[in-house]
């Protein structure tokens, strides 16, 4: 993706600017180099670091990354084991830097399939960074958009059955409050790398009016300039939200 350079954030952009990214292409990057898929995932973790560091400079206040989907458990057992090992490594090694750089970490998705030590690392990371507000980093792990909406509907059904909620009071706002992202603004832009043009069950409710940017760059090669190009693309668009 080519675009004019985006300058450092000068404070003129809206106070809330949310970018969500589907990080795609690790496996293809590795395959093209004759390397195991794990090598692609390791290089992809370096791209996460680059993007997190660059985001505040580009005026991004909220960054949400699709780290591991509920469908990814279908991958070979060895690859899943490697991914869990990389997740442990990231959580152990990066939290200190996130805290020092003003980044708040949150993880969305069902945690019960992760090992106890990974859950503890997630909880510790969230606790250690909860007072930060330079960048709100959300990582979706064992997450699926349809699953999230179904869980929210189930929660509403329980409240109605218990007599705590009038069915007529259920609207978009009420349902949205039962989602995992209830305290986050909806994404302004959704970026998918590697040239694929699919949503892949990511933030289905939240991206109703998000701008979509599809980058041909494989995730392990995704750089600050590529993120800046996606931001520039977004700012060139006119958002009407259904109006004229």
CATH 2nd-level architecture: 3-Layer(aba) Sandwich
Task: State the secondary-structure class.
Answer: alpha/beta
Whole-number radius of gyration?
18 Å
Strand content: 5-15%
The largest pleated sheet is described as:
6 strands, parallel
Identify low-pLDDT runs: 1-13
Shape: globular
Task: Provide the spatial order of strands within the biggest beta sheet.
Answer: 3-4-2-1-5-6
Q: How are the SSEs ordered, and which strands pair?
A:
Blueprint: E1 18-22, H1 26-32, H2 37-54, E2 62-69, H3 77-100, E3 103-108, H4 116-129, E4 135-143, H5 145-161, H6 172-176, E5 189-192, E6 211-214, H7 224-235
Parallel strand pairs: 1-2, 1-5, 2-4, 3-4, 5-6
Helix pairs in contact: 1-2, 2-3, 3-4
């Amino acid at each position: 993706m080519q675009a004019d350079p985006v300058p450092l954030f000068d404070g003129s952009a809206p106070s809330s600017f949310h970018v969500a990214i589907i990080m795609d292409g690790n496996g293809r990057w590795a395959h093209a180099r004759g390397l195991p898929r794990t090598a692609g995932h390791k290089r992809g973790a370096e791209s996460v670091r680059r993007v997190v560091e660059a985001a505040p400079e580009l005026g991004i206040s909220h960054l949400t990354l699709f780290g591991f989907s509920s469908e990814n458990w279908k991958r070979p057992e060895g690859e899943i084991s490697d991914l869990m090992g990389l997740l442990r490594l990231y959580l152990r090694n990066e939290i200190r830097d996130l805290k020092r750089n003003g980044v708040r970490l949150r993880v969305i998705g069902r945690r019960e399939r992760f090992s106890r030590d990974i859950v503890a690392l997630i909880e510790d990371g969230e606790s250690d960074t909860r007072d930060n507000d330079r960048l709100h980093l959300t990582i979706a792990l064992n997450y699926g958009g349809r699953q999230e909406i179904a869980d929210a509907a189930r929660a509403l059904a329980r409240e109605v059955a218990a007599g705590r909620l009038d069915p007529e009071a259920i609207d978009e706002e009420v349902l949205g409050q039962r989602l995992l992202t209830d305290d986050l603004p909806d994404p302004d832009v959704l970026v998918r790398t590697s040239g694929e043009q699919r949503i892949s069950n990511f933030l289905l409710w939240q991206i109703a009016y998000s701008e979509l940017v599809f980058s041909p760059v494989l995730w392990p090669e995704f750089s600050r300039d590529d993120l800046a190009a996606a931001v520039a693309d977004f700012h060139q668009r006119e958002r009407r939200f259904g109006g004229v």
